[in-house]
Amino acid sequence: MQEEIWFRPLVWMDYRLAVLFTVIVPLILIFWAAFQKTDALVRLLIIYWRVSSLLAITVFLMIGAAPLAFVSSFFARILIPISLWFWIDVNEEIDDMSPRPLKLALTGWRWAITIYCILGTLAFTPFLQCGFSQGMVKKTFCQVWMEAPWLLREYLFKGYKPNFLSFIGIVALIIYVVYLVYFALIRLGKQGRSAMQL
Hints:
Blueprint: H1 8-35, H2 39-63, H3 68-85, H4 88-96, H5 101-124, H6 134-137, H7 140-143, H8 147-156, H9 162-191
């Protein structure tokens, strides 16, 4: 029997909101932008998917109860809004678009996910301690965040061991961090805040 924790429903609500704001809505938007051939929005959403892949990595790490999952989750909530507002050329192109449903939907989603990520970062901060101790991760206080990923494993990855899925997450995280460092130290200096070359 699961130990009752007062914030468990809030954690599950966070996962539901994450699926809505970070998966379903941006999928609809990228297909919509591609259909309407709005290149700037497609570029912005491709950048978003690259950055938000850290959330998928986090899920794999959570399945294996890797403490690092809490650190990657925290940083994903910070990087996502930055990736959506950072690009000067995209922002100008969106501002210049006539008011139409796609522009309104994208702008509404950018604000919604930004607010969601800011509030999520603040709420998640006490759980960062779970990211620095294997012993801490074994406590229910931390494991409540792993319940949804464990359930996902039952549906999608039942034949795979949690340690193997966590290993995939660690390899993906290493690749992610290497690319992020390369982008921050090299590409950003060359192209500035333009998304044109991404």
